[in-house]
Amino acid sequence: MVTECNIDKLELQEYNEKKVIADFNGGKITSDGGGILLREVENRFKIIKDFSKCFTDYRNEEKIEHTMEELLAQRIFAIALGYEDINDHDRIRNDNLLAMLVGKKDPTGKDRKRDRDNGKALAGSSTLNRLEFIPEQGAEENRYKKITADFEKIEDFFINKFIECEKTVPKEIILDFDATDDPLHGNQEGKFFHGYYMNYCYLPLYVFCGEQLLVAKLRNSNIDASAGTVEILKKIIPIIRKSWTEVRIIIRGDSGFCREEIMKWCEENKVDYIFGLAKNSRLVEFIKEELDKACEEHKSTGKPARIYKEFLYATLRTWSCERRVVGKAEYLSKGSNPRFVVSSISSDEYDSAKLYENLYCARGEMENRIKEQQLDLFADRTSTSLMRSNQLRLWFSSVAYMLISMLRRIGLKGTEMETAQCGTIRVRLLKIGALLKFSVRRILLMFAEGFPLVKTFEKALNNLRLIPIQLE
Fold first, then answer.
1. How far is Cα 225 from Cα 206, in angstroms, rounded to an integer?
2. CA distances from 42 to 45, 229, 291 (A)
3. Rounded distance, CA 342 to CA 324, Å?
4. What global pTM score does this model have?
5. Which residues of 24-51 are buried (b: 16+ CB within 10 A; e: fewer)?
6. Which residue from 23, 116, 292, 378 has the highest number of Cβ atoms inside 10 Å of its Cβ?
C-alpha cells in the first residue's frame, strides 16, 4: 500500500521540545517584494511598453484576458526576478506582487472569467509559450499563435532606447563589440560545433556602450566572430549620429574583430577604432629588442616588466594600408607575453601605454556585462528547437537586463550597490519577503522587519523619484 503524505503540512526538526510545522498557506506573501523598484523603473522609462510596440496582436480583444504588453511584462519581470523557465509561471501566476508589476487592474485575480482561474491574475505557461513560438508570418490566420514580432523594430528599439536614456548629449562614446559561446544541448536549429569553445553552441554578438546594451544578436557558430559587424555598424551609427551629430564614436574589440572590412569602413565613415591584433612572427620581430630589455628588467627585479613600442604595420595580403600598431613587450615569471593592438587614434591623443592600458584594457568590463546576461539573466536559455524563438528569449533576457541596469545606474547611484552585479542586486535587494494587504483605497506592502538594506532601498526609491513618471 502506497503511503499517503500530507504535502500541506511539513513537519520539521523540533525546537526546544516543541514541534515545528510549516506550510505554504500564509496568504498573500511574496518573496520578491523588492521587485516593486523595477515597477518604478518601468513607469519612468517605459522600457517594456516601448518593447511591446515591436509586436502585433491579432487576437480578438473581446476574448482575451492578458494583453500582449502584459504577457511580455510578465515574462520579462519574472526573468529579472530569477524565474527563467516558463513552467515557473504555473506557480508564480498566483503572486499578487508580480501581477502589480505587470499592471493587472485586479492583482488579486478575482475578476477572472473562469472559476478555475479565480485568484490567478497572471497567465499560465501554455499562454506564455505561445508568445515565444510566434510565427514569422501568417499570424492573422493562425488559430493559436496570433502574436507576431517585427525583428527589425526590436533591433532599432535597443539602439533608440540607449539614445533616449542619455539625458545629456555625450561628446564621445565607446562601443564595445564581443562574441561569446552559448552552449547547446539538443538539436536546435543552427547548431554547430565550435573548435575554440569545444562544444556545440550559438555564437551571439553583443554591443555595449558602458553598461547600456545596444545589440544582442543570436548567430550560428560556424562563422567568424566578427561576422555581421559592418552591417551592424551601418545600422547603428547613422541612428546615433542622427540624434548626436557631433559625437565622437570609438569602436573597440578583441583580435577577433581586427578585420580589414571593419577597419576600412570605420576609416571611410570617420569612426575611430581600437582592436586587439593577433601576434605573429613579423610582429614579434618588431619588438624583439624591447622583449630582451623586459627580460633583463624582470630578472633584476623579479617583477613583471613591460615596455611599449609603436610602429606602422600592414599585413602582407589582407590590409589595404599601413596602420598604427602598439606592441607591449611584457615579460612575466612564466616567460615572454607579447601583445599588440591596432588603432586609428593618433599618438598625440594617446601615447602607447595609455592607448593599451587605459583605453584597450577597459574593454574587459564588457565581459562582466555578458556574464550578467548569461549567468544572472539566463540569456543562454536558448533551448527551443527554433532559432527565431531562441532569439526572442535572448531579447527577453536583454530587456530584463535593461531594467536592472537602469535600477543600478539611476536608483542605486551613491549607494554601496551602485556597482553590484545584476545577480547580487536581485538576491540582496529584490528578494525581500513582503505581506500584501488589499483594501478599497490602498495596497499595503509590509516588508520583512529583518531586511538589512532598508537604507539602500529607501535611497534607490528616492533617486528614482527624481525622474518624472512618463504619462500615457
1. 11
2. 5, 31, 54
3. 6
4. 0.92
5. eeeebbbbbbbbbbbbbbbbbbbbbbeb
6. 378
Lookup result for grid cell 580589414: 260
Q: What is the DSSP string of 193-231?
A: EETTTTEEEE--EEEEETTEEEEEE--BSSS-TTTTHHH
Residue 433 burial (CB < 10 Å; 0-12/13-18/19+)? middle
E-assigned strand segments in 117-254: 147-149, 172-179, 182-183, 192-194, 199-202, 205-209, 212-217, 248-253
CATH number listed for the domain at residues 166-374: 3.90.350.10
One digit per residue, pLDDT tens: the chain, 472 residues? 344 444 578 888 889 989 888 888 777 889 999 999 999 999 999 999 999 999 998 888 888 889 999 999 999 999 999 999 999 999 999 999 999 999 999 998 888 888 888 888 999 998 898 888 887 776 777 777 888 999 999 999 999 999 999 889 999 999 999 999 999 988 899 999 999 999 999 999 999 999 999 999 999 999 999 999 999 999 999 999 999 999 999 999 999 999 999 999 999 999 999 999 999 999 999 999 999 999 999 999 999 999 999 999 999 999 999 999 999 999 999 999 999 999 999 999 999 999 999 999 999 999 999 999 999 999 999 999 999 999 999 999 999 999 999 999 999 999 999 999 999 999 999 999 999 998 888 999 999 888 999 999 999 999 999 988 876 6
Question: What are the grid coordinates assigned to 199, written together?
Answer: 562544444
Contacts of 172 (CB under 8 A, 6+ apart): 247, 248, 249, 250
Element (H, E) at 57: strand 55-57
Query: Mind spelling out the 3-state secondary structure of 361-402?
Result: HHHHHHHHHHHHHHHHCCCCCCCCCCHHHHHHHHHHHHHHHH
- What is the sign of the dihedral through the CA atoms of 380, 159, 140 and 146? positive
The residue among 338, 403, 413 whose CA lies nearest residue 36 is: 403
Length of the chain: 472
Domain ranges in the chain are 29-151+377-465, 166-374
- Between the alpha carbon of residue 131 and those of residues 21, 39, 127, 364, the distances in Å are 40, 22, 7, 35
Type of residue at 382: T
**How do beta strands 323-332 and 339-343 pair?**
antiparallel
Q: Decide: helix, strand or coil at residue 248.
A: strand
CA distance 361 to 358: 6
| Nearest residue to 251 via CA among 268, 241, 263, 259 | 263
What is the amino acid identity at position 86?
A: I
